[in-house]
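User: Can you help me understand a structure? I only have the sequence.
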Amino acid sequence: MPSYHNDAATQEEFLSRLQSRGTRRRARKRHPLLRRVIIVATSFTLLLGFSAAALATYEYKKYNGQLKRVNVIQLHDVHIIKPKLQLNAENFLIIGSDTRTGQGVGYGNEAGARSDTTILVHLSAGHRRASIISFPRDSWVHIPSCKAADGSVVAAHEELFNSAFSIGGPVCTIATVQLLTGIAVTHFIEIDFSGFKDIVNALGTVTMCTPIAVDDPESKLHMHPGNNALDGTQALAYVRARYTLGDGSDLGRIKRQQMFLGTVLRKALSGSLLSDPIALTHFLDAATKAITIDRATTFGDLRKLATSLSGLNPKRVVFYTAPIANRDYSPPGTTYSGKVLLDTAKGRVLYDSIINDADVTTPAPTSSSSTAPSSSTAPTSKPSSSSQPPTADTNAGDVSCSLG
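Assistant: Let's start by predicting it. Here is the structure, written out as tokens:
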């Protein structure tokens, strides 16, 4: 994949700030690097941290060296709201890159890549709770001016959310998220088709439940009613399946991805992986080869993160979908139909809760520094009362048997 480099001064400033917080992070020069399934990368990051605690020094160096790193963090972005307040935030943007070329039969052979699934994970101060926001790939958004993969500058324009990745990789996607939400992205993780399959296979299987038999010719997913133990290939099909499952929408697929992530999180928090040295070795080898992270995050940081989260109740891991105003939107001046228009008012309530590290039902403090990006920088929706906060989709402690 192409190398994505942010402004050098910005990156150096970011590293300097992180070091001033007492967190040892080293920028390493490395060549940069799940598709619809990335949602699980959060769980794999957590598992990475738990597993790392038991490693000998030489093993630690091996796995740390296998992680691919890129310069993508943009803390000087003018669209970040309350940048000083967010300096110490732990906000992970996790991207599932739909890079299909050369990935074999069943994955297509389309050129380029898109962020087929994108989620933002916010860890509260003290890691008492985690909020996870999914961004529908078909959302109609403003993509700010950003640097493309070939180094050229792309002018600001409106397009589908997932096109930002094909234009300029994670740099443009992060810029788009920061413009949309005002939230500072402080960490980045990416995983693709093959990486996802390898990681699930290293875990063994992931058990998912369906109320009905599933035979989806498009994703090649086959499930019987009740619990099904899915290997890497079937797990990938489960989170990719769309048109023949549930209501056939991308939003239904997001809910299935959230259920999948909840299942993997419960498995991660159970600590069962650590009791099997062989499975642990296979997992660490697959995971560190499969994911790409920002330069400021080290393997040691993942270990510290997971250790601090070990006592977190899964019910305190809450999933949201970016609030939606219209699920069947036709952007003016285009031939698109059936796209998603986001709800700017309810979205503001949700995003401000992340910025202020507050519960989503708690009104954000009134301040000139907390105003949202102006209406000229975001598509507008019909007014929606911010007194009705967005509701959570589910939490990682929920166990259900549905198709979303």
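Now, to help you interpret it: The chain has one domain: 8-197+272-395. The longest helix spans residues 250-270. Let me know which part you'd like to focus on.
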